[in-house]
Amino acid sequence: MMLACNRISMNRSLSHLIEYRRNCLNGSRRFPIYVSQDCNDADVLALLRSYGEQITILNQPDHSDFNFRHINPNLIAYSLPMYSAISGYYRISRNYKWSLSQMFDERKYNLTIIVEDDLDVAPDFFDYFSSLAPLLMEDKSLFCISAWNDNGIPTLIDKSRNDLLYRSDFFPGLGWMLTRQLWDEELREAWPMAYWDEFMRKKAVRRGRACIRPEISRSHTFGRKGVSNGQFFDSYLRFNYLSDKPFVFNSTLLRITLKPDVYDSQFLTEVYDKSVLLNDRSQLSHLDEASPQSTACRLEYKTREDFVAAARLLGAMQDFKEGVPRTAYMGIVSVFFCGRRIYLAPGGSRGWDNNEYPDWK
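^ Alpha-1,3-mannosyl-glycoprotein 2-beta-N-acetylglucosaminyltransferase, sequence as received from the core. Prediction below:
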């Protein structure tokens, strides 16, 4: 399901999806492509129609303006322009809810992959999701599969490991898959009027569950211009590296190795037992003196300031959503820096339980 509005460059995203779908066995049947168009843009609609039967066009019927006084009766007059400026976030959330309802309530699909109209995708995009679909359906400790690594810039990933996957307590978005069960039982009635992605990152929504994300992103955003006015785009998003080497995942193996009863113990062993503890973040500048070449290193943090300072030195994302750093699992952020694995990990314990994250902003 692609969410579209008035971006005529969406043909770039759509053409890649169609091209890579052809490489999949029974691709058109297994991965029907729907485009949900908001905004009533005539040029975009003409573009979509040019694809003929390769896609199905859905026209989101509600294009009405939002009455912010109805949403918040306490609104004072001079603040109305501010609320009008963020109406795009309300429109996006409305289109998401309608589109998800079309997929799950009307068409009864068990799984849906959501992409925006400004995403490039990797050649193995469909294989990636189809390999992880059985895991998502049966592992109740998961609530999504994502194609995106928030720290996926070239200086923080191992480009030789396009097979590497992680569990993450942070909802990444930017090309993600969810189940009809999650929609039916939790999301439909609770879906927010705006800021749907922030909603998905709330503890009350995650409920201790994780997402799967890759070492090397299977999606890449090229849309600088949008409702967020390029927030994070110039600093991070445009540098994110898109995988260009397909990998054949073993779905049966993933259903074993990525489940928490196997994954958690192995991950904690790699982080706390097999890595070299750095005494100070200044050692990040001369790692070869701190440990043998190519040996994984661990830098522990106990405060928000510790984490932010270390992340800044590495060039990693430094923000939190309800206390969870981007890409973190049990509080641990894994990056590949200067030829070796680096873990930013909570000190004083072997990681945090999913529901024990501090309330850092």
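Residues 2-256 form a domain with the Spore Coat Polysaccharide Biosynthesis Protein SpsA; Chain A fold (CATH 3.90.550.10).
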